[in-house]
What we know:
A: alpha+beta, Alpha-Beta Plaits
Amino acid sequence: MKDADSDSIEDRRTFLQKALPAPVALLSLLQGQDRKAESKEESEPAYNPAEHYYGMGIDPGLCIGCGRCAEACKAENDVPREPFYFRTWIERYVVQTSGETVVTSPDGGIAGFSPVAEADVLRTFFVPKLCNHCANAPCVQVCPVGATFITPDGVVLVDKDYCIGCRYCIQACPYGARFLHPVTLTAEKCTFCYHRLVKGLVPACVEVCPTQARIFGDLRQRRSPLHRFMRFNKIQVLKPHLNAEPKVFYANLDGEVK
Amino acid sequence: MPQQVTRLAVVFGILILALVLARSQLVPKTFGQAGHYRAAAVTEIAAAKIHYAGHEACAACHEDIAKTRSAGRHRNVACEVCHGPAADHVAAPTDVHPSAPKQRGRCPQCHGYDSARPTGFPQIDPVTHNPVRPCISCHQPHAPETPREPEACGACHGSIARTHAVSAHALIGCTRCHETDRRHKTTPLLIRPSKPASRAFCAGCHARDAGSPKEIPRVDVTTHGERYVCWQCHYPHFPEAK
């Protein structure tokens, strides 16, 4: 009796030992196959994200407020044409002699700006704005489903198929760089024209800027134009106290710019 | 083993299996591969269509225009700034043609006067600057030059000229204070006019012992604001003293 009992226990143990990991092993086998299939697809383009770390430099002293960047952004990325959806836009700051600062951005600056009354103006200038692609991005931290993320090359992207449209990221962005797409009802923002970067092109706004007020490049490569821009200018980022570590760098920025 | 423990173990086993199966079905395949996101999304975003081909693509066929442009003042203005997105034209050159803006409205988007634009950037007042005529009838857009040298300083420095014209200094010509090389008219940013470098220049009229007409305001230049050149405090184009 005793022998038979211990045998059956032994059998049950070996059965469980063999049977329990089987579905797990099966699953991992299936996933492994998927992984292999995808890595084959990914290896085709020569682009390696680990070799890059992107940022943008902006010199407001060169910006003429022509709005070509905002226009090119809308055309390149099929951004809705309504005057309140922007991935990049231009603001005009008018610091008045009274000390008050008036910031305007009619239609993001695409159609230009109406003239300012010169009598009360202490100084006035344009500032282009866009997503700052923060290294410590608040929008990524608050996303409840992992639909927004930072790629290895330092670009903050939104997975529109996975976004649930909860708008947390839009609230969390300190730079107002996100909006809810009116048709897909998912969060939208600047991608640094990621589809252009992987093909070796610069973002559309940088391509069309007629005065080179926007500089794009690799933060880690010394030979990139951005590296030179950072060496030869006094650099400031927007809202540095928030510790979001933004990667859009402004040269000689006025203290009124928020 | 007691019966209730066995049953509970079976129920737990089924639940765990159901969880593992549901996870494998519901969580996207590539989720978590590179981080807390769907790795395939990066590939999908990277596959988006390009609309702006880039100026290198234009230069590959339009060599002559690219050469003209590279020597002119618009050398850093990409083709698609004026002609619009041209990736479709690159893909099918004979079927799709980019626009060529010939209307007068387009150039002032950059060259219309706005005080927020940086000093020295060429700007005109679209209302008064040769009204009605399209810009390209005088200016070659690929390598723009001013058709003739500007006669008066006010052609470019309109804001200063308007202020100066109603000031007490209205009768003093610009070149009396600014030594201006002739080349400033053709290369305004490279060759710059001078500004009075010393207090002695203004003292020529405004010192107590200057031989100028009596109605001109006088100061003691040896004691009055001695650490500054006069124009660092007084705006000479519209002096406040009467």
